[in-house]
Write the structure tokens for this entry.
Amino acid sequence: MTPMILDHPLIQHKISLLRNKNTGSKEFRELVSEVSMLMCYEATRDLPLKEIEVETPVSIAKTKIIAGRKLAFVPILRAGIGMLEGVLSLVPAAKVGHIGLYRDPQTLLPVTYYCKLPSDINEREVIVVDPMLATGGSAVAAIQMLKDSGATSIKFMCIIAAPEGLTALTDAHPDVQVYCAALDEKLNDDKYIVPGLGDCGDRIFGTK
Ligand code: PRP
Ligand code: URA
């Protein structure tokens, strides 16, 4: 599936603030949350609706509510946690699964350390959230874990993607719709996104 770039002006403005190395952790966290909420609005645009009737104070209204499968959000730890508040503010009834992965600093390959998913994950529309798609290793592995657990309908939402990561992800999981807010230039020798925003987990949680 062709990746969708969600470049609404409000999103672009907030990403410029995220990129700035002088933006502190408190503001950075708030911005990640706001961008995630705006992206979620777009990523849920195709949710199916069904018609219902509601009694207004004036008459009966034929109106619509969301139908079909319920949602689950799955943040990739740690940095994905930063996107959770924003997406849950739009879909508060969604269930949440967690996948713990980190990039080994030497091999740069993803290492799994945690996986806890809703038991009915196979019946849900899953949106995986992780702010950074660099080599794509973490996203590819997380989505494979979801598929191995029975998930059949999966979207992936990141804030900044590198071309290398997008290619790896769409090659490995062509059935997954990918949403990103900015497509950057390249990866550097340490596999960080250029220009990117640095280490997203460290900036959200104030570590390092
Ligand atoms: C970051 C980011 C992604 C991953 C992307 O996590 O949040 O999960 O790197 O890189 P990749 O596309 O090359 O796999 P990191 O491994 O730094 O862990 P953290 O969120 O716990 O800091
Ligand atoms: N993880 C990050 O947090 N930033 C990058 O640029 C790449 C991976």
About this structure: The chain has six helices and 13 strands. The helical segments are 9-19, 25-43, 81-90, 137-148, 163-172, 200-205.
